[in-house]
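Good day; I would like, with your permission, to put a structural problem before you. A protein sequence and the structure tokens that stand for its backbone fold form the material at issue. I would ask you to consider whether the tokens describe a fold that such a sequence might reasonably adopt. I set the record out below, with my sincere thanks for your time.
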Amino acid sequence: MSEDTRRAGDVGLMQHWLLTVDKILTHAAHWHGCAELASREPDGSISRTTYAAIERRARQLSSALLAGGVARGDRIATLAMNTARHVEAWYAIAGIGAVCHTLNPRLFDDQLHYIINHAADRWIIADPAFAPILERLLPGCPCVERVVYLGDAPAATAGGVPAVGYESLIAGQSTDCRWGDFDETAAAGLCYTSGTTGNPKGVLYSHRSQVLHTLITCTAAAFGITSRDTVLMVVPMFHANAWGIPFSATSMGAKLVLPGFRLDGASVYELLEGESVTFSAAVPTVWQLLLDYMIANRLRLTTLKRVLIGGSACPESLIRTFADEHGVEVVHGWGMTEMSPLGTASTPSSEVAKLPEATRHALQLKQGRVFFGVDMKITDDEGRGLPHDGAQQGHIKVKGPCVIDRYFRAEDVDVLDADGYFDTGDIGTIDRYGFMQITDRAKDLIKSGGEWISSVEIENIAACHPKALMAAVIGIPHPKWRERPLLLVKLRPGQHATPEEFLGYLDGKIAGWWMPDAVVFVEEMPLGATGKLDKKRLRASFAGGAAG
């Protein structure tokens, strides 16, 4: 064999088809063009469109962006809820090589101000309802050149920046705009962490990472979406890319239901039943509101088959109610913004499927197994690997093509260990079946007398009490033990309880020295910008002890 022939055999002879996100919508428009998107408008009405129409309008917006001087790599922000126009904006921005930067309207003004300026956003595409936020922020954001309102512009300017309505901007624009003429490693999206410690940090996704994440989440081990599904996208698009659902559902040509601003129990139920939804995903608080509404009104689910619950630990009572009362399969998922975001799901393996029912249910409460494309390990504080025995707790670390390598504009700060793994900040175990379980966030562990107490484990048990709507555990100062756990409980409407009831409920389910020193009943639980319990605020409120 000649040297030239041998060299030729070293390279695969397949087409170089770049993995860019515009191909997702192009595929849906060409092969599932009539598939429907139903979108809740601000007035409560439901508008309907198709993937073919979404692609045409997205290309019109791309043409408008290019005409306005937007170039590859420019950050174009969105400040919007889940609507069809927001989906169009995502693909229009990324299709021309600009970077779609999702802003979370639930953040505090100072956080948004920091994020916009740090990202150097040139345009902001926003829901008109968020005009007051922009009026407050934009005088201090000199990088922003233009505001586009998804609908009619409420004014000609926003905080001194020229503003225009979305429909008037794209009217008459060309639908022939060329997409994807760049490398797959180009930046596609930007999402900032919620900034629970220090300033928020930017996670800059590539086209390649988002397409690979789409392929991963479409597997049966994750979302398992097909063109026969109707998907209710409850997770906001500004929350870690709505867990990738705008890409996954579109790639499969599934019907997509977009709830807009209304995420209360009644509105979610109306969409689930009215649109014949088969799959959805959300944080536990959304599903608890739904179930409470259904119980109060004696309602049932008739089409929903599967839900993915993530964002925080899911109470066993929630899983059992979905399964036993409504025949809905619950898949517990876990991930983070830095992972694009999905990393694990509690879908059983063939080995687990053969186990006794009680064992399977116990595993279902864990965060689950990794998918192909995600590698995971647990280590001790010194970085030494720990066994997968389900008992030894360690730092959860991950690597893979959809995992962060550096934070945006902090490229000189190394966030990986010597083997290229990213420390998620979670503490957990991995058992013999490969199921990972989060036992706490590193910053939420309670150190009492030199030993660690898992706040999450106590919370999960307390939340199963029939009178509890929500439960949280934080560490409070103690003169002898350094910290002791405090249990905070928000009761269900109309319920009354004593601390002794909850301490008795925990007795025998946790180690005696884990038992909270006190139980405090609260009217409200503070939620963060992504719907999770805001323990930072709870710790501040009770820094002086149980009296708060």
Notes: The chain has a mean pLDDT of 92. The chain is about 30% helix and 25% strand. The longest strand covers residues 468-478.
